[in-house]
Write a structure and sequence with these properties.
Largest sheet: 2 strands, antiparallel
CATH class of the domain at 14-197: Mainly Alpha
CATH topology of the domain at 14-197: I/LWEQ domain
Number of helices: 7
Number of strands: 2
Strand order of the largest sheet: 1-2
Structural class: mainly alpha
Helix content: over 70%
Length: 279
């Protein structure tokens, strides 16, 4: 018992209340995110126009669709959780059921926290992009994080759910919808970024031959520097993920209460990127 990882510093009898609080907190975070996006939409229409307004509206609309999909996912997850407790507790109380299945309960709480956190981060990133103080890449990363936390929530629920459960089928359908909406956010962000960059395309027509050659050499230097930095960041990302897996625990709970090793992260992220084509 002492060797089991302690992911939460709370008493087991408090786990049941913690689950309900976290699910409610996640729902509130999503509702707040929807309101903030609506405010950003109104502000964007007042302060921008043309291509920038078109890009901002498309990104914010895709974020709104994603928030709605997450809201439905959390609602369905809550219904499935209640079904699992009612069918599995027998003569025990709800608190006793959560205490008896504390490892599963902690996983459910962690997944719920991840979903709410991802939604909050997405809105903050969208706000910075609309105000031109953030990076488009932040939105893309947040979308991937939301898709990952959604999969975590479905996996945590699936462990205890009956395979024939209608709520489980709905939850899996909601998860697919969230993934689709997250992909739409990524697509709208990338297309918007391309539109903005095309608008700000540099004009080299007035440069002399010597000036062009100098700019070309300086750009080559920057490309080499960025390639080296990219390789270093890929290695750093791999080490961060290894540490993350180590802290989160290397074992996943199975349906029969036993444990199996979690799959090791793919190492493809550490591959050296190809060098740029030399002129």
């Amino acid at each position: 018992q002492e060797l089991r990882p302690k992911s939460l510093d709370i008493k087991q009898e408090e786990l049941g209340d913690m689950v309900e609080k976290e699910m409610a907190s996640t729902s509130e975070a999503i509702e707040d995110a929807v309101r903030r996006i609506e405010e950003m939409m109104s502000q964007a229409r007042n302060e921008s126009s043309g291509v920038k307004l078109e890009v901002n509206e498309r990104i914010l609309n895709s974020c709104t669709d994603l928030m709605k999909a997450i809201r439905l996912l959390v609602l369905t997850s809550t219904n499935l959780q209640k079904e699992i407790v009612e069918s599995g507790r027998g003569a025990a109380t709800t608190q006793e059921f959560y205490a008896k299945n504390s490892r599963w309960t902690e996983g459910l709480i962690s997944a719920s926290k991840a979903v709410g956190w991802g939604a909050t981060q997405l809105v903050e990133s969208a706000d910075r992009v609309v105000l031109h103080t953030g990076k488009y890449e932040e939105l893309i990363v947040c979308s991937h994080e939301i898709a990952a936390s959604t999969a975590q929530l479905v996996a945590a629920s699936k462990v205890k759910a009956e395979k024939s459960s209608k709520n489980l089928l709905r939850l899996q359908e909601c998860s697919r919808n969230v993934n689709e909406m997250a992909a739409n956010v990524v697509a709208s962000t990338k297309s918007g970024q391309e539109q903005i960059e095309e608008k700000d395309t540099m004009d080299f027509s007035g440069m002399s031959l010597i000036k062009l050659k100098k700019e070309e050499m300086e750009t080559q230097v920057k490309v080499l520097e960025l390639e080296k930095r990219l390789e270093g960041e890929r290695v750093r990302l791999g080490e961060l993920r290894k540490q993350h897996y180590a802290l989160a625990g290397t074992y996943d709970a199975t349906e029969d209460g036993e444990a199996k090793p979690a799959p090791a992260p793919r190492r493809g992220i550490l591959k050296k990127p190809p060098l740029a084509q030399k002129p």
